[in-house]
């Protein structure tokens, strides 16, 4: 009987190796760090100095160059955390559990940034720092989900049990992502519709949305740098008794 072909790519199984993952992240880090710095610095200068004022909101609209990327990234980070948690549950990959654990504090910080910049934008626009709008409330729930995952990792001493529990919570919390995305369409909300969509051209002129796109990509590169750094530290901590970690520390 012929052997059944494995449909999973080779790199997927290589990721199961903490040493291989640590090394490949180390090689990727400099490139992502340079891209993040160039994109964020260039995008910020472009957004603040060269993008035109909004005809209704004036210069206060420029907060979108921080708010929109952070709001998008907070949701993407959560989805990555849930996917990594699912991989850890199904394939028992330790590195996937480490990635999921590393996502939580980064995602929580980005969610706080999204909520804070949204409040700063909402004060001159709506006349209030906070309203129980569907989009705002679902984003706040996203932050609580992140904090719940962090709390589970802190409360449960056994790493495997903590990873499984947090993965289940992450997967259950995925239901909140479409609520965030479609809240402005499903309910009457003060929040404006999505700035970017895959099916329609942006309503704003290119002079405004191009620097916003640059900032979004820059935020993703910054997230990749933060995630790889935290995951590498987590790998070193969990594999501290492995011979390759001791050799690495001795060289340093």
Textual characterization of the structure:
The chain has one domain (36-45, 59-234). The chain is 75% helix and 0% strand. It has helices at residues 10-14, 18-50, 64-91, 94-126, 134-155, 159-173, 176-186, 206-238, 243-251. Helix 3 crosses helix 6, helix 4 packs across helix 6 and helix 4 runs antiparallel to helix 8 (206-238).
Q: Give me the number of helical elements.
A: 9
* Distance linking N and C termini: 51 Å
The class by helix and strand makeup works out as mainly alpha
> Poorly predicted ranges (pLDDT <50, ≥5 residues)?
none
What is the share of helical residues? over 70%
What count of domains describes the coordinates? 1
Please provide the ordered H/E string of secondary-structure elements: HHHHHHHHH
Number of strands: 0
Shape: globular
Q: How confident is the prediction overall: mean pLDDT?
A: 90
Strand % is under 5%
Q: Give Rg in angstroms.
A: 20 Å
Q: Give a quick account of the main beta sheet: strands, pairing sense, barrel closure.
A: none
């Amino acid at each position: 009987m012929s052997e059944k072909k494995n449909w999973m790519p080779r790199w997927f199984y290589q990721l199961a190796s903490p040493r291989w993952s640590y090394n490949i992240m180390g090689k990727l880090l400099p490139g992502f760090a340079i891209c993040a710095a160039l994109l964020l610095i260039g995008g910020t200068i472009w957004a603040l100095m060269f993008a035109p004022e909004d005809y209704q909101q004036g210069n206060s609209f420029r907060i979108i160059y921080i708010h929109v990327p952070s709001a998008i990234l907070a949701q993407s980070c959560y989805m990555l955390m849930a996917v990594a948690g699912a991989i850890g549950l199904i394939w028992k990959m330790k590195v996937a559990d480490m990635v999921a654990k590393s996502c939580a504090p980064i995602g929580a910080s980005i969610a706080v940034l999204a909520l804070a910049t949204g409040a700063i934008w909402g004060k001159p626009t709506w006349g209030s720092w906070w309203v129980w709008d569907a989009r705002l409330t679902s984003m706040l729930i996203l932050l609580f989900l992140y904090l719940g995952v962090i709390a589970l990792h802190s409360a449960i001493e056994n790493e495997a049990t903590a990873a499984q529990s947090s993965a289940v919570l992450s997967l259950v919390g995925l239901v909140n992502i479409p609520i965030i995305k479609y809240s402005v369409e499903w309910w009457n909300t003060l929040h404006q519709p999505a700035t970017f969509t895959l099916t329609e051209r942006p309503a704003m002129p290119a002079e405004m949305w191009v620097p916003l796109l640059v900032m979004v990509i820059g935020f993703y590169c910054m997230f990749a740098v933060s995630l790889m750094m935290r995951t590498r530290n987590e790998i070193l901590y969990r594999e501290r008794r492995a011979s390759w970690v001791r050799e690495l520390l001795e060289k340093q």
